[in-house]
Amino acid sequence: MASTAVTGSVMRKVSTRNLGAHKLRLVLTVLSVVLGTAFVAGSMIFTSTVSTAFDGIFDKVALGVDTEITPKEMNSLGVPDDVLQKLQQQSGQVGIAKILPTYSGQLSVADSRGKALQTGGAPSIGSAFETPQQRLSDTESVLVQGRAPEAETEVTLNDSAAEKAGLRVGSTTKVALSRGVGTPLTVTIVGITKMPGNSSGYTNVQFQESVARDLFTDGAHSQGIDLQATPGVTAEQLKQRVSALVGSDTYKIRTGDEVRADEKDNVNQFLDVFNYILLAFAAIGLIVGTFIIYNTFSMIVAQRVRELALLRAIGASRRQVTRSVLLEAFIVGLFGAVIGLAAGVGIAAILKAVTGSTGLPSTGLQITPTAVIATLVVGVVVTMFSAYAPARRASKVAPVEAMRESQTDGQTSLTRRTVTGAILGVIGVVLVVVGATGEGKGPAATVGLGALVLIFAVVFAAPAVSRPVVSALAVVFARPFGKIGQLARTNAIRNPRRTAATAFALTLGLMLVAVIGTLGSTFKGTIDSAVDNGLKADLIVAGNQGSGFAPSVVDAVRKTDGVRSVVSFAVVGAKVDGKLVGGSAPQGDLASALPLEMEQGSAQIPADGMIISQRTGTEKGWKFGQTVDFTSLTGATVPVKVTGVFKDNNLLDPWAMGSGVYQQLMPPASRSEVFVLVKASPGTDTAALQDRLGDVTKDYLTVKVQTRAEFKGQQSSQIDQMLTVLYAMLGLALVIAVLGIVNTLALSVIERKREIGMLRAIGMARSQVRRTIYLESVLIAIFGAVLGVVLGVGFGYALVRTLKYWGLGSPVLPGTLIVVTLIGAGVVGVLAALWPAVRAARTKPLEAIADV
């Protein structure tokens, strides 16, 4: 027992001293752990930071409010004035000190140049100015310059928006509403307000209360009512009394604390989704990092086989050898995770800086205990897990065999792995093909499962696949370099496990890039096809980034010289069977601008009817000739007859109704248009007409007049922006993959020090050594890239086929992306090999040959 304890103590000293004795190897190993943990830490710290910033804002929401009354349904006209009157009449009995109805709505503000003020995604809200007597809290929207609005065209503006827009007290500007029947207003800024906790980009324009009421309501409702209790009445007591007075079945009645808590919950739900997305990319980076760590420890253990065998020979057991390697892995994992945590703080700071202009609120970085613990645990667990298999494999090598001069490379037969990979590959291909033959969620899930199985198949079978594929690639990339190329090929295929593990990091990253690229190309192809084949308009008037605009835009367009016909598309929101539904209401000759293929009935929509897509009929069970009962915002039931069924059309889906029922369902204050199709009169110059339409719509601020090509370009640019974000996130995995190749090659150079020394001794020049390492790296990188692109395009193609149900067109392969990716892989191979190649070239022949 004492001997075992002494041996264990010796093994621990060997482990710790071994780390210090091989500093380069230690740095490279720690780097692999850092790469695998940094983004996990960064994503958790960043979301905690944003969450804390929002909490700070919502702590200042509804200050002074003891009870708030709002409609239960979001899609509602608001709280009727009879509720307000009832509260005013019985305020004394209920215990109400102050009553403040809220009148607000979305709008756009012109900056000092006459252009729409860009909010970066933050809200731009119009509301009623609150006098000191009306305010429920002294911290709410304080007037810091000028005075209160006293006329219909006077407003106040919050200080951050005023500064960004270049406006000040006395400035004249325009505001445009996104809905309602009004035209843009010319207003004068008479005051500057300061709001508690407003985020970057937030805009608040305040009108006289009567003006705000006219602009943002139908004149008989308010968006909500805030109440303050008299002294001695608690918020909960006031809530109960108000509920008994107005009824809690129709209205949402909450205390101020509940309002703040709900706002925080809503934001945290959004942040949870955001965090899941970040963590998904972190998981990708971690998976790639895990392969790098595994690869690293496999190489390190292989390099130390003789050393470990010597320990076995002097009495160390297999278990102690395994434990010594795991102890090293623990130390490396902990050290790497600490550095990864620091790098994660840097990543979070970068994300915070990048999102600072998007309207998200800002605060100091929040390094929470959860983020710290999660990063440390992930780093240690992943590292020890990755080190266990190589350590166990090394402990099984017989001491006498391991100490021979001619050592085995530790590679066991690949037959079992290859067979397992082949079986998984067949299963995965069958699942992907079966999924691709269907449409909808089920087939898409089947494709996803098949893709997951195929990824595991690649993990198992890649070593066997690497030899023939790398040999084939060597014909193109290595053969022109003669013996140097032949040596590079031999180095790349001599250890297929290592080659496959090194390449897999790149394979996974580029596979995801190819999937996203295929989806993006198909989305853009679908839009282009829909516009080219489905739109007959010369010009398209649309809101910026899909936002709505006031119906008065349609009248302005229709009256413009050179316009032959106009078809406008209004937004419809109502309920069917208690559920919210949305569609459009075209006005004008629909067939002239947007031809439809009808399955049943006519494309001409009667005033009291509607036409539906085939997909809508299937989903909702609506049939030709059926009458569907819609419920309006006011609660009125409006029967609408299905007079036609058209083949699925992305520009009109899911349904379109006539003008008569639209006017019954949508009150004037809630009406909004989404786009207008314009046909020019014969002989009219389209470019000149576009300029005239731009002049008559410029005061609406966010309205754009575009040709069909420009409209397609705008839609494609939005997709490109989304893809850019995804590619940027995937860039982490690719960076990790590239550094993984660097890591592997550097360790490989250490492992082959004697071999390189022998080559130098028999006459190989330093430049030839470097060239050999470059070519080896290029072969590995292109192998990984080809594997990733083939898998990614295949998965993307199959996934697109399943999405046809939702209107996605035929798959479009991203040809340019594929070519750029493969060329980029070759460049990556060269860049990744720069440092290892230089290090290999500096190997001194005599020292390397003497090294044991």
Could you walk me through the main structural features you see in this protein, from its secondary elements to its overall organization?
By secondary structure, the protein is an alpha+beta fold. It folds into 4 domains: 1-64 and 257-408, no CATH class; 65-256, no CATH class; 465-535 and 709-852, no CATH class; 548-701, no CATH class. 58% of the residues lie in helices and 16% in strands. It contains 26 helices and 23 strands. The strands form 5 sheets. It has a 6-stranded mixed beta barrel with strand order 4-5-10-7-9-8. The protein has a 5-stranded antiparallel β-sheet with strand order 16-15-22-14-23. A hairpin with a 7-residue loop joins strand 8 and strand 9 (185-194). The protein is globular. The two termini are 34 Å apart. The relative contact order is 0.11. Belongs to the ABC-4 integral membrane protein family. Residues 280-398, 728-845 form the ABC3 transporter permease C-terminal domain. It is a multi-pass membrane protein.
Helix content: 55-70%
What is the number of helical segments per DSSP (H or I, 4+ residues)?
A: 26
User: What is the radius of gyration computed over CA atoms, rounded to a whole number of angstroms?
Assistant: 34 Å
Number of domains: 4
Low-confidence stretches: 405-412
Overall shape: it is: globular
Beta-strand portion reads 15-25%
What strand line-up does the widest sheet have?
Answer: 4-5-10-7-9-8
Number of strands: 23
Give the CA-CA distance, first to last residue: 34 Å
- Which structural class fits the helix and strand makeup? alpha+beta
For the largest beta-sheet, the strand count, sense and barrel status come to: 6 strands, mixed, barrel
pLDDT averaged over residues: 82
Keywords: Cell membrane, Membrane, Transmembrane, Transmembrane helix
Membrane topology: Multi-pass membrane protein
GO molecular function, one term: transmembrane transporter activity
Family: Belongs to the ABC-4 integral membrane protein family.
